[in-house]
Amino acid sequence: MRTVFFRSGHLSRPSRFTRLVQLGRAVALLALACAALPVSTPAYAERLKDLVQIQGVRDNPLIGYGLVVGLDGTGDQTTQTPFTTQTLANMLANLGISINNQAAGSSNQQSSLSNIQLKNVAAVMVTAVLPPFARPGEAIDVTVSSLGNSKSLRGGTLLLTPLKGADGQVYALSQGNVAVGGAGASANGSKVQVNTLNAGRVAGGAIVERAVPTSVSQAGTMQLDLNEMDYDTTQRVVAAVNNAFGGGTATALDGRTIQLHAPADPEQQVAFMAQLQNLDVRPAQAAAKVILNARTGSIVMNQMVTLQSCAVAHGNLSVVINTQPVVSQPGAFSNGQTVVAKQSQIQMKQDNGALKMVTAGANLAEVVKGLNALGATPADLMSILQAMKAAGALRADLEII
C-alpha cells in the first residue's frame, strides 16, 4: 500500500537526498549499458574510386587557334604580330570579303595587310578538355589565352574556332564571350593590375561535334590502375573486390594493375562499376618520403619519416666584398692624367657551428623540432637532409621537385 502525505493541501515532493540517490542509480545503469555495447575501432578506409582509375576512361585535351574581337583598344599591335592580320584576312576571305580586291598571296595584298592597324582584335589559343563519354551536342568550357601582345581580353568575343585533338580531327567548335577575372588601369605611365588580363574562360563555350570512342571492357574484362604503385594496397583491393563479388572477380597483374571479370551487358556493367567504386578499402601506409622544392625552398615530410642516431653541425660562412673607387691625382706639372682605380676589401666571417644530437627513431615532430633548433633556413635544411640521407641516418626517400 502506497502512503501519501499531505502538507498544506499539496503532495509532498521527494527529498533532495532521494533525488540524488535515484540519479546515481540511473547513471550507474547507463554506464553498464554502454559497457555492454561492442567497441568499434575507427575505420580509415577510402572509397575505391579515390584509389584507382578505370583504364580507358580518360580526358582528352583539345586545342585551337582563333581570334577575339570587340576589344576596347587593347588588342594586338599588328606591326609586331603580323599573324593577327593574316588570320583576319583569311577569315574575311572565307566570308567572301577581300582586302583591296587583291588576289590572295599577291605582293599588293601583303603590303596592304602591313598597313592595317587594328586595336580591337587579338590572336588567341583556345584550349579545352574533352571529358570521357562526351557526346555530340554537349557543351564544355574553354580557356582563351592571348598569343600576341594584347593588353587585355576583357569584353572580347571569341569567334568560331575549331578545336582539334592529338590526331588532328576536329572534336568541338568554340565561340562566345570571354570572361576575364582580372582588372587593371593605366594612365600617364602608371599602371595598376590585379591578376592577369590576357586569359579568360568561356563557360559552355564549345559544342562537342565528335565523340571519342571509349573501350572500357574487352572480352568481358576490364582493368583498374592504382594511382600509386603499391603491392600491399593492390592485394587489399583484390581481396575487397573478391569478398564483395565472389572469388576470381579481381586478379592482380602487377603492383598497379588489377584485372576484373565484368558483366558483358553494358547495363549490368554500369551497376557493377557503381557498386565497385563505393567499396571501402584501407590502403597501406605510404613509404617514408621527404619532398624538397628547390625553387621555393619548401620541405614536406610524411609521418613515416624517422632518423637514426646522428650528430649535425651547422654553421654559416659569410663573405662580404666592399669595393670603393679611388682617384689617383698626378703631380703638378707632370703632364699626367687622373686615374680612377677600384679598391676592394674582402671580409670572411664564420659563425660557430652548433652540434645537435638526434636520437634514434625520432618521429616527424622531433625531426622538425631538432632541425629548427639549429636555426637553419629552408635552403640549409635541404643540405642537412641530403647529408643525413648520405650518412644513412635519414630513413626516408628524398625527392627533389
Automatic annotation (TrEMBL):
<keyword id="KW-0975">Bacterial flagellum</keyword>
<dbReference type="Pfam" id="PF02119">
    <property type="entry name" value="FlgI"/>
</dbReference>
<keyword id="KW-0282">Flagellum</keyword>
<keyword id="KW-0966">Cell projection</keyword>
<keyword id="KW-0969">Cilium</keyword>
<keyword id="KW-0732">Signal</keyword>
<comment type="similarity">
    <text>Belongs to the FlgI family.</text>
</comment>
<dbReference type="InterPro" id="IPR001782">
    <property type="entry name" value="Flag_FlgI"/>
</dbReference>
<comment type="subunit">
    <text>The basal body constitutes a major portion of the flagellar organelle and consists of four rings (L,P,S, and M) mounted on a central rod.</text>
</comment>
<comment type="function">
    <text>Assembles around the rod to form the L-ring and probably protects the motor/basal body from shearing forces during rotation.</text>
</comment>
<protein>
    <recommendedName>
        <fullName>Flagellar P-ring protein</fullName>
    </recommendedName>
</protein>
